[in-house]
């Protein structure tokens, strides 16, 4: 198996690619061609072909672009004067399970862990896996032959790299001392290791036991199914597939009730629903209110319909979310802005009722119509305020989306820098974490990312760099001008909910 | 040396998250960055999936912020996202301005189902049908609500009767089927349209392959292909496997049994309560009947001028009759009050008797008034005597107060052949059963008559008792103990009678203590002076008593003779009558005339009833 790292660069791909010229007639799914996008031609993989008004339209995924930019293109945007890459022929199934998942649980004993995991993997009965995943994948992608393994994008569908990330970000730091060398080695080892590939069974098993909602689903319908949704005052283009009723794939517009999040393809039906619908806010208890936003706490078990509706909606904008399992083990913290119409749902984060890994956020989303307005920061801050109230350190579940990462980094940077600028002359990582409810790893991440953790005169020091200070000052000026919205912990009327064993179970 | 340095450096590279690190400004750090160590500052994982980490736009933003962190000025970059278009045309029509924010935080537990009315929502084709149907039928208009209720009823019936209709190709349910299954929730008015709406529903079902009309999510159907279907969502989580052990099973069984037992108990209790309340109700009705009939009888009597036994107009205690009936096998006639549980008023099922006057009660009341009169006098009498001490030994009429009001408890005397071994630190057994019950006011009147003269101690054998005194002190009282002669003399020696003043000698003290001990109950004699008084007093009285019993006081030798001791009496009986006996008897019978005979003697006779 080729190292995945290299596979993202076409030049580094060890498997020889079959290249050649194609015509519209020979284009098929899995082919990578050059497609015009935003003033340039980018290499893109054809994921689906559909006849439309006499000609085919092609659903393409641009390499190195996020999936949310995947789109239907007409043939005239494809540059057939350049060579295309043909999908590689099918590989034997064995490959699927060959990679040893480098689940470096403890960085210190990475080799042990790796070998153990390998054994574990090997122990699994092959018979139950053999061939099935491939068949299943084909079933979901029946029009095409199997896309090239060499391409990172395809592999992504069947690969979960989360474990290694998860481990590093696991909030529980058992050793008080982290050997940075080892951490790095582990990271390097993880990168060098062949990409672990989870068979569908393994992945589902993981879902069953971990309860996570954000794991990537092997089977991703890679083509967006909804054209557009109408919600409140906005018409929004979905970013990803979401398992709304199959019939909706044929609709131009799906109408979503802003309050109950119910979905309707028929506009008359939607209007009729609005006559009947009496909801004016998320169906739960308001636990926070300031003059800008309100937060509602919704129990997935008690408000199954609403939470399912919410998950369907948010799946449109979250790639790594899975709706494989039901909403029972989660609490949903929903942020709303108020008007005379009611409490308008702006964004939310979900949280496991009991997270074995210590995550304080499972999925987090600001609806696209409210993005880039500082709501994400409020959601993140709120999640940490809850953790503070619980007396726990928290971290978001991995993998993060690109937007999620940026949001968290911004919040972490601001929080840590503000703390360090309060005049203190020394600080230790754990203390910073305790004050902010951030995990030690997230604090380290932030310090290192900002180049603030240095080694000078035989000891580690935290450096408030001029650049960081300057950046913060500029930010503060902006806040002064625009007004800064923050969560006021005083206004949080919340006690960590306690669940009986029966309400925590995953069955009904 | 060099080795040590490298060793040190190696250790230093470890970053302790607990160790306080100095926070410095950039100017405070020397420009020389330790390259080797810096190399070991790792890149922390971003948490983003590897494949996505390299994405163009993310990298652009990350490198921009990295540049900013190093000091570069970079315009803020955003990751591009698909379009959002604002469209408010319909908004106010669809979403009424009806929200009133409560002053307190909103709390609710109602669900979407609670807030969205009928589960079936009419769509465009339904409205078209309704319009046409209502035009055809001029008189009766089917409302959308009624229509939806009917459609929902049909859909629900189909879902329950043909859960796999879509797969099994079953025909659409007949009208009879859906009509029969119609629930009470379908109002009468709506039923008139049932047939028409059914035809519409059927045509739509047929067109839809007999599948549910409202588009629904795909839930798991336990078919193999489910897993591959991205549309299948919200699967049930599997029950977490709990390790099953025999112990756990037993525990669970136990719990279930207990729960069941408790529930049954509760149920039984409820059942009995119901029966009781019903019985009470019946009793009340009967009571009322009795009352009304008595009233009738009384009026009848008045009108007919009958006078006579009024007993039947008040409730007679059913007395003993029902009791043996209730428990005939239990109550043995020979042991009354043992088998027969106290005749509770409600045992006979007539709990309301007490409200009515019964003859027995009246008698009891009379009796009570008499006893209370006696008690009152007793108390009064005690008040008169307050502060006085009855100095008599052997009064003619012993004061009754003691026996009635047990100011002095009869000492429970336990005879022990030897003093009990006292173990240090071990709590001692208390012989008195009523310890510490003594009231403060119990010493208002002291009747010395309770005591017999010291030499008349009937207890011939040495005896002890243990008791708790004030503050929980444990005391031992001794009685009739054999003392060494000196001490005994101090009490009983004739010397005492000839010259009581001698008692002031110090050698007296142990005897005093003994005395105090033997009458330890009399706490009023606690002080040393009091102690002396009592002994002087006793001695004086003893002397006084024998004052004239001697022929001459020339004789220095004094013999203490108790004329009432058993041996003396026997002797006297044997000797028949002698003058001395007569004398003695006279002196005993004729108590001194000035003797403070307890006034109670006259008052204790109960007033005539
Ligand atoms: Zn609604």
Automatic annotation (TrEMBL), chain A:
Q: Name one Pfam family in it.
A: zf-MYST
Q: Which PROSITE patterns match?
A: MYST_HAT (PS51726)
The terms under GO molecular function for this entry are: chromatin binding; histone acetyltransferase activity; transcription coregulator activity
Q: What is its EC number?
A: 2.3.1.48
Q: Which reaction does it catalyse?
A: (2E)-butenoyl-CoA + L-lysyl-[protein] = N(6)-(2E)-butenoyl-L-lysyl-[protein] + CoA + H(+); L-lysyl-[histone] + acetyl-CoA = N(6)-acetyl-L-lysyl-[histone] + CoA + H(+); 2-hydroxyisobutanoyl-CoA + L-lysyl-[protein] = N(6)-(2-hydroxyisobutanoyl)-L-lysyl-[protein] + CoA + H(+); L-lysyl-[protein] + acetyl-CoA = N(6)-acetyl-L-lysyl-[protein] + CoA + H(+)
Q: Does the keyword Transferase apply?
A: yes
- Chain spans, region Disordered: 81-158
* A GO cellular-component term linked to this record: nucleus
According to its UniProt entry, the protein's GO biological process terms are: DNA repair; regulation of transcription by RNA polymerase II
Superkingdom of the source species: Eukaryota
Q: Where is the active site?
A: 397
Q: Where is the composition biased (Polar residues)?
A: 105-116, 139-148
Q: Which Gene3D superfamilies match?
A: 2.30.30.140, 3.40.630.30, N-acetyl transferase-like, Winged helix-like DNA-binding domain superfamily/Winged helix DNA-binding domain
Composition-biased stretches, type Basic and acidic residues, lie in 81-96
Location relative to the cell: Nucleus
Keywords, sorted A to Z? Acetylation, Activator, Chromatin regulator, DNA damage, DNA repair, Nucleus, Transcription, Transcription regulation, Transferase
Q: What is the recorded function of this protein according to its Swiss-Prot or TrEMBL entry?
A: Catalytic component of the NuA4 histone acetyltransferase (HAT) complex which is involved in epigenetic transcriptional activation of selected genes principally by acetylation of nucleosomal histones H4, H3, H2B, H2A and H2A variant H2A.Z. Acetylates histone H4 to form H4K5ac, H4K8ac, H4K12ac and H4K16ac, histone H3 to form H3K14ac, and histone H2A to form H2AK4ac and H2AK7ac. The NuA4 complex is involved in the DNA damage response and is required for chromosome segregation. The NuA4 complex plays a direct role in repair of DNA double-strand breaks (DSBs) through homologous recombination.
Subunit organization: Component of the NuA4 histone acetyltransferase complex.
Protein name listed in UniProt: Histone acetyltransferase ESA1
UniProtKB/TrEMBL annotation, chain B:
- Domain Enhancer of polycomb-like N-terminal, residue spans: 11-156
Q: Where in the cell is it found?
A: Nucleus
Query: What Pfam families would the database entry show?
Result: EPL1 (PF10513)
The principal location of this protein is: nucleus
Which InterPro entries does its entry note? Enhancer_polycomb, Enhancer_polycomb-like_N
According to its UniProt entry, the protein's GO biological process terms are: regulation of transcription by RNA polymerase II
Q: Does the keyword Cell division apply?
A: no
Q: What does this protein do?
A: Component of the NuA4 histone acetyltransferase complex which is involved in transcriptional activation of selected genes principally by acetylation of nucleosomal histone H4 and H2A. The NuA4 complex is also involved in DNA repair. Involved in gene silencing by neighboring heterochromatin, blockage of the silencing spreading along the chromosome, and required for cell cycle progression through G2/M.
Q: What's the name of the protein? A: Enhancer of polycomb-like protein
């Amino acid at each position: 198996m080729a190292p995945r790292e290299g596979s993202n660069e076409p030049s580094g791909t060890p498997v020889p690619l079959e290249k050649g010229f194609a015509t519209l007639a020979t284009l098929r799914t899995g082919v990578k061609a050059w497609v015009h996008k935003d003033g340039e031609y980018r290499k893109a993989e054809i994921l689906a072909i559909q006849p439309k008004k006499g000609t085919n339209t092609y659903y393409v995924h641009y390499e190195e672009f996020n999936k949310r930019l995947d789109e239907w293109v007409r043939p005239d945007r494809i540059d057939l004067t350049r060579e295309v890459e043909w999908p590689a022929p099918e590989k034997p199934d064995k490959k699927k399970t060959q990679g040893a998942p480098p689940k470096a649980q403890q960085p210190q004993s990475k080799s042990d862990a790796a070998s153990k995991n390998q054994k574990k993997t090997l122990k699994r009965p092959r018979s139950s896996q053999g061939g099935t995943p491939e068949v299943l994948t084909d079933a979901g992608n029946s029009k095409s032959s199997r896309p090239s393994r060499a391409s990172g994008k395809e592999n992504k569908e069947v690969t979960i790299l989360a474990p290694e990330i998860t481990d590093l970000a696991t909030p529980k730091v058992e050793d008080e001392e982290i050997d940075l060398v080892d951490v790095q080695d582990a990271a390097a080892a993880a990168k060098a290791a062949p990409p672990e590939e989870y068979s569908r069974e393994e992945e589902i098993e993981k879902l069953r036991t971990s309860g996570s909602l954000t794991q990537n689903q092997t089977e991703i319908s890679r083509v967006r199914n909804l054209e557009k949704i109408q919600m409140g005052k906005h018409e929004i283009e979905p970013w990803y597939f979401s398992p709304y009723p199959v019939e909706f794939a044929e609709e131009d517009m799906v109408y979503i009730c802003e309050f109950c999040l119910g979905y309707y393809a028929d506009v008359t039906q939607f209007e009729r629903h609005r006559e009947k619908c009496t909801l004016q806010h998320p169906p739960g208890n308001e636990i926070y209110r300031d003059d800008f936003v309100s937060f509602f706490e919704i129990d997935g078990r008690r408000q199954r319909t609403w939470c399912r509706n919410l998950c369907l909606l948010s799946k449109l904008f979250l790639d790594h979310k899975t709706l494989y399992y039901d909403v029972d083990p989660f609490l949903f913290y929903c942020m709303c802005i108020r008007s005379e119409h009611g409490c308008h749902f702006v964004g939310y984060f979900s949280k496991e009722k009991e997270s074995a890994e210590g995550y304080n956020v499972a999925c987090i989303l600001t609806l696209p119509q409210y993005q880039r307005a500082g709501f994400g920061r409020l959601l993140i801050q709120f999640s940490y305020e809850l953790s503070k109230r619980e007396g726990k350190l928290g971290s978001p579940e991995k993998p993060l989306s690109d937007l999620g990462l940026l949001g968290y980094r911004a919040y972490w940077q601001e929080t840590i820098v503000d703390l360090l600028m309060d005049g203190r002359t020394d600080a230790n990582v754990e203390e910073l974490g305790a004050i902010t409810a951030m995990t030690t790893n997230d604090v380290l991440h932030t310090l290192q990312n900002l180049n603030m953790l240095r080694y000078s005169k035989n000891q580690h020091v935290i450096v408030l760099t001029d650049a960081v200070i300057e950046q913060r000052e500029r930010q503060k000026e902006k806040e002064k001008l625009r007004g800064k919205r923050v969560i006021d912990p005083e206004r949080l009327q919340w006690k960590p909910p306690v669940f009986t064993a029966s309400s925590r179970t995953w069955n009904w | 040396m060099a080795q040590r340095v490298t060793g040190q450096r190696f250790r230093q590279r470890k970053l302790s998250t607990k160790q306080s690190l100095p926070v410095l400004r950039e100017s405070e750090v020397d420009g020389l960055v330790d390259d080797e160590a810096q190399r070991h500052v790792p890149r922390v994982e971003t948490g983003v999936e590897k494949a996505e980490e390299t994405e163009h736009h993310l990298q652009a933003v990350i490198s921009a912020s990295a540049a900013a962190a190093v000091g570069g000025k970079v315009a803020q970059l955003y990751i591009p996202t698909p379009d959002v278009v604002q469209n408010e045309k319909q908004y106010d029509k669809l979403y009424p301005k009806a929200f009133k924010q409560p002053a307190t935080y909103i709390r609710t537990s109602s669900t979407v189902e609670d807030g969205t009315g009928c589960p079936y929502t009419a769509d465009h084709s339904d409205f078209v049908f309704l319009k046409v149907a209502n035009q055809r039928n001029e008189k009766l208009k089917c409302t959308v609500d009624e229509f939806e209720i009917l459609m929902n009823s049909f859909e629900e019936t189909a879902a329950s009767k043909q859960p796999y209709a879509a797969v099994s190709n079953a025909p659409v349910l007949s009208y009879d089927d859906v009509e029969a299954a119609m629930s009470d929730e379908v109002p009468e008015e709506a039923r008139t349209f049932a047939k028409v709406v059914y035809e519409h529903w059927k045509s739509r079902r047929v067109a839809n392959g007999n599948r549910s009309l409202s588009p629904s999510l795909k839930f798991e159907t336990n078919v193999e292909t489910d897993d591959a279907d991205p549309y299948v969502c919200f699967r049930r989580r599997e029950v977490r496997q709990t390790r099953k052990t025999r112990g756990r099973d037993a525990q669970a069984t136990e719990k279930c049994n207990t729960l069941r037992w408790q529930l049954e108990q509760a149920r039984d209790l409820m059942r009995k309560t119901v029966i009781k309340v019903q019985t009470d109700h019946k009793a009340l009705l009967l009571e009322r009947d009795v009352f009304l009939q008595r009233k009738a009888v009384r009026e009848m009597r008045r009108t007919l001028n009958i006078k006579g036994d009024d007993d039947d107009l008040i409730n007679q205690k059913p007395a003993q009759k029902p009791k043996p009936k209730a428990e005939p096998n239990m109550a043995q006639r020979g042991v009354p009050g043992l088998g027969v549980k106290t005749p509770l008023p409600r045992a006979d099922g007539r709990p309301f008797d007490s409200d009515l006057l019964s003859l027995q009660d009246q008698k009891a009341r009379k009796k009570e008034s008499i006893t209370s009169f006696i008690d009152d006098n007793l108390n009064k009498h005690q008040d008169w005597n307050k502060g006085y001490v009855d100095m008599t030994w052997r009064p003619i009429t012993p004061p009754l107060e003691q026996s009635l009001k047990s100011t002095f408890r009869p000492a429970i005397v336990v005879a022990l052949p030897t003093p009990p071994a006292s173990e240090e630190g071990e709590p001692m057994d208390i012989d008195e059963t009523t310890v510490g019950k003594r009231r403060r006011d119990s010493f208002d009147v002291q009747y010395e008559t309770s005591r017999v003269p010291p030499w008349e101690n009937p207890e011939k054998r040495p005896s002890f008792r243990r008791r708790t005194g004030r503050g929980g002190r444990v005391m031992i009282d001794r009685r009739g103990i054999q003392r060494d002669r000196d001490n005994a003399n101090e009490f009983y020696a004739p010397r005492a009678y000839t010259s009581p003043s001698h008692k002031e000698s110090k050698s007296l003290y142990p005897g005093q203590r003994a005395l105090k001990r033997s009458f330890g109950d009399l706490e009023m004699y606690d002080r040393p002076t009091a102690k002396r008084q009592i002994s002087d007093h006793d001695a004086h009285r003893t002397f006084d008593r024998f004052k004239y019993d001697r022929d001459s006081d020339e004789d220095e030798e004094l013999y203490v003779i108790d004329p009432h001791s058993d041996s003396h009496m026997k002797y006297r009986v044997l000797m028949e009558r002698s003058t001395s006996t007569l004398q003695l008897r006279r002196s005993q019978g004729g108590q001194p005339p000035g003797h403070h005979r307890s006034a109670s003697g006259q008052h204790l006779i109960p007033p005539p009833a």
